[in-house]
Amino acid sequence: MRVAALIVLVLSAACSVVAPLVGLSLAGKPLAPYLEFPPRTQPGLAPPFAWDAFALLSVPVVGAIVLFGCAIALARPARASVPVQPFPWFGWFGIGIGAAGWILAWSDGVVPPEWRRHTFIALWVGYILVMNGLAIRRTGRSPLTHRTGWFLALFPASALAWWLFEFLNQFVRNWHYTGIDAIDDWDYFVQATLPFSSVLPAVASTWTWLRSFPRLDAMRLPAVRAHPALGYIALVAGVLGLAGIGIRPDIFYAMLWLAPLLVLCGSQQLVLGETYFAPLARGDWRPLLQPALAALVCGFFWEMWNYGSLAKWHYSIPYAQRFHVFEMPLLGYAGYLPFGVECALIMDLVARIVERRPLWPLDPEQSGA
Questions:
Q1: Residue 243 lies in a domain
Q2: Under a CB-based contact definition with an 8 Å cutoff, are residues 179 and 310 in contact?
Q3: Whether the bond into 88 is cis, omega within 30 of 0
Q4: In a domain, 161, yes or no
Q5: What pLDDT shows up at residue 79?
Q6: Confidence at residue 45, expressed as pLDDT on a 0 to 100 scale
Q7: I want to staple 299 with a disulfide (CB 3.0 to 4.6 A). Which of 15, 176, 336, 368 is the partner?
Q8: Is residue 31 domain-resident?
Q9: CB-based contact 210:157 (threshold 8 Å)
Q10: HEC secondary structure over the chain
């Protein structure tokens, strides 16, 4: 299982790197600017806002809202309530460093700018500890305390995964950074890797906390059985989508989030003979809906804390650059939904490597899992 899971990760990463470069070659564009490391995306000039494109892009968002609404409405919570546990010491520590990081991140003149530029990791380590503390309080369990090896492995996996997204972002230029002061490429790599490493642990911690709410942990929808050939279809579609961002990034920019998901899912089916989505065949949609919602919750805090920070990112979303909530255009938040599922797929592969078992159920000792 370990070797197969590692093969899936390597194959998916290889496809995600090679396919956009092939697209560039087909479009007759130079490759050299996209091969520099670490990747640094330059500001992009997105096509102007267009109501027809905005309406078209809103359709899958409305579909996702309906899907979540139906799943929650059809939920039949059955799990017995767990007595409230004391809030752990590390949760209080997380509140402390998170609050300090927030004050320093948004306050001009309190500390030197060199300090303000490094507050993101403090904010997110604090957030991760608080979420684990809230999970302990509501269920008595958390990833940090009960799946420690897997949880700690998510930090380096997160850094590697987000550097891959930074590489892909060079093609679509959906975001770029300002306020960063790095003396050379190595300094930039270190400064960026630390906050990048917090992404997967933050989503995993939020996911566990969301599962403590009985209705969210009882979401059900009709069963969906996937034909084995869908693995090949997903892999091919993902590779073509990645090639598309090299050919026409203004049209295929959404593939930045969708194509890696398809490649991961297809590779998992072809190499492992099963996918993380197997529970959908039993009508259990929690593995799909819960991480998507967890990433959206994280996205709100990412965007909020980014808004007042010195070192920050800005967005350029083709045809939808309007109705901002913090720095993010409103429709941009939809990207967090497939991103959350991508995170879950990576977490699943890490669990197969570290624990030699699939990710789902998150905690087999919890009823309803």
A1: yes
A2: yes
A3: no
A4: yes
A5: 62
A6: 76
A7: 336
A8: yes
A9: no
A10: CHHHHHHHHHHHHHHHHHHHHHHHHHCCCCCHHHCCCCCCCCCCCCCCCCHHHHHHHHHHHHHHHHHHHHHHHCCCCCCCCCCCCCCCHHHHHHHHHHHHHHHHHHCCCCCCHHHHCCCHHHHHHHHHHHHHHHHHHHHCCCHHHHCHHHHHHHHHHHHHHHHHHHHHHHHHCCEEEECCCCCCHHHHHHHHHHHHCCHHHHHHHHHHHHCCCCCHHHCECCCCCCCCCHHHHHHHHHHHHHHHHHHCHHHHCCHHHHHHHHHHHHHHHHHHCCCCCHHHHHCECHHHHHHHHHHHHHHHHHHHHHHCCCCEEEECCCCCCCCEECCEEHHHHHHHHHHHHHHHHHHHHHHHHHCCCCCCCCCCCCCCC
- As a whole number of angstroms, the distance between CA 325 and CA 51 comes to 18
Task: Show the tokens assigned to 87.
Answer: 């809030």
Distance separating alpha carbons of residues 214 and 138, to the nearest angstrom: 11
Sign for the CA dihedral angle at 182, 186, 188, 190 comes to negative
| Residue 56 belongs to a domain | yes
Number of structural domains found in the chain? 1
- First-last CA distance in the chain: 22
> Per-residue pLDDT for 323 more than 90?
yes
Find which of 46-55, 74-83, 164-173 is predicted with most confidence, using mean pLDDT: 164-173
> What is the per-residue pLDDT for 6?
92
- Proportion of the chain above pLDDT 90, given as a percent: 74
Instruction: Give the angle subtended at the CA of 236 by the CAs of 233 and 240, to the nearest 5°.
Output: 135
What's the pLDDT tens digit per position in 250-309? Answer: 899 999 999 999 999 999 999 988 888 888 888 889 999 999 999 999 999 999 999 999
pTM greater than the 0.85 cutoff: yes
229 token code pair: 């050939």
